[in-house]
Amino acid sequence: MTTTETVLIRGRLPDTAQALDVRIRNGMITTVRRAGRATPDIGDANTIIAPPLFDIQVNGAFGINLQADDLTVDDVYALNDALLQQGVVRWLPTLVTDSVDAMEHKCRTVALALEDPDLARHIPGLHLEGPHIAPEDGPRGAHPAEHVLPPRMSVFNRLQRAAGGAVCCVTLAPELPGAPRYIRALTRRGVTVGLGHHGADARQIAAAVRAGARLCTHLGNGMAPHIHRHHNPLWPQLADDRLHASFIADLEHIPPDALRVFARSKGPARTILTSDSVSLAGMKPGRYELFGAAVDMKRSGRVCLAGTELLAGSSLMLLQGVWNMYRHTDFTLGQCFAAASAVPAVLFGLEPANWPPAPGQPAALLACTTKPNNKKKLYLTALAHDGRLKVF
Q1: Which terminus of the chain has fewer Cβ atoms in its 10 Å neighbourhood, N or C?
Q2: 179-188 vs 202-211: helix axis angle to the nearest 10?
Q3: Sign, CA torsion 255/257/262/263
Q4: What residues does 303 pair with on adjacent strands?
């Protein structure tokens, strides 16, 4: 609904104890004051008021698969609507390794959807996770081996043309021949380069960073399952302060103790939370087909290649990732929300949402809470954005 009437939201900002009353009218914040005697329309003293979320890696969700050969514009709209229901106001559609023809079709479909300026406000660009990744089992993950390619500007140019210039992020393996030259070329075009699905050594990672790479894509995953305790792809990426790192905080891709250490290493300014959600997110446990392979979604939410423990994407919703990060690391709740909002926005050269809320600003906020019998999950109760207010 549009906020044509005055709505009073009560809650506390992350990292504060004092409850506030935020009044919204016509999509604008009119007042922000200490909670008073008025009865709020939404929330209470225990409600958390937080910034809207930005997810840099979305492969699909709720049965909508961005990797489908028959992807349609309507699918992109439907996925955007579904993500809004989860508090995600900005997101990067992410296309994984496939034939160049298939990736071109999907890029073109997303580009057609982005001709709608209302949708384009939610989708600042397109993320290509492949096809330039490690061909070996393990670091390749669930990506199909037959479509892996070495870096080629001819491939990127073809996909970028199909995307109408919307490709803003490319994830690749830095050890592939020609990778530094390719990274320099993409960086000159304003594309953010992420290192992922690779087995690079410290020297190759350093060369990629010198060439302009600035992101580690879902660090701690997309690696060989067995690595040398000292000489492996993980430590050089954690140690380099020029690299941001995205993490899938579903507690399946990274166990809590590792997540805590990773977060300490990168710090709040360089940590990004992402869902890496696949089409099974929001679906019931069972066996499905994904990326052309059979996968199992277990009751825990873990998505694996059928009959193995090899992860094949995530069923995480980003808001829960924020809460998991807060519960299992040293980050404050405000820092966890920033890792899923302001930090990725800055990395991609976007204006973060106005935060904290103040009178005269457009209303852009989440209201969320836990339930008395389940403190492990965070629930969205309201979302204000683009002059609209949705109550859940």
Answers
A1: N
A2: 30
A3: positive
A4: 297
Work out the pLDDT band at 198, boundaries 50, 70, 90: very high
Domain spans of the chain, in order of start: 7-50+354-391, 53-347
User: At residue 147, does pLDDT exceed 90?
Assistant: yes
**Whole-model pTM?**
0.96
8 A C-beta contact, residue 86 and residue 317: yes
Range 7-50+354-391 classified under CATH 2.30.40.10: yes
Tokens at 344, concatenated? 């990725």
In whole angstroms, give the CA distance from residue 390 to residue 392: 7
Q: Which residue has the tokens 């683009």?
A: 386
Quick one: average pLDDT of 118-143? 95
What's the gap between Cα 216 and its chain centre? 13
Neighbours of 317 (CB within 10 A): 28
Query: How far are the Cα atoms of 72, 114, 259, 292, 382 from residue 52, in angstroms, in the given order?
Result: 26, 20, 23, 33, 11
Q: Which residues contact 307 (CB under 8 A, 6 or more apart)?
A: 294, 296
Q: What is the pLDDT of residue 264?
A: 98
Residue 137 neighbours by CB distance under 10 Å:
11
Note the pLDDT tens digit of each residue in 326-385. 999 999 999 999 999 999 999 999 999 889 999 999 999 999 999 988 999 999 999 999
Buried b (16+ CB within 10 A) or exposed e, 5-32: eebbbbbbbbeeeebbbbbbeebebeeb
Determine the distance from the C-alpha atom of residue 361 to the mean position of all C-alpha atoms in its chain, rounded to a whole number. 25
| Domain covering 53-347: architecture | Alpha-Beta Barrel (3.20)
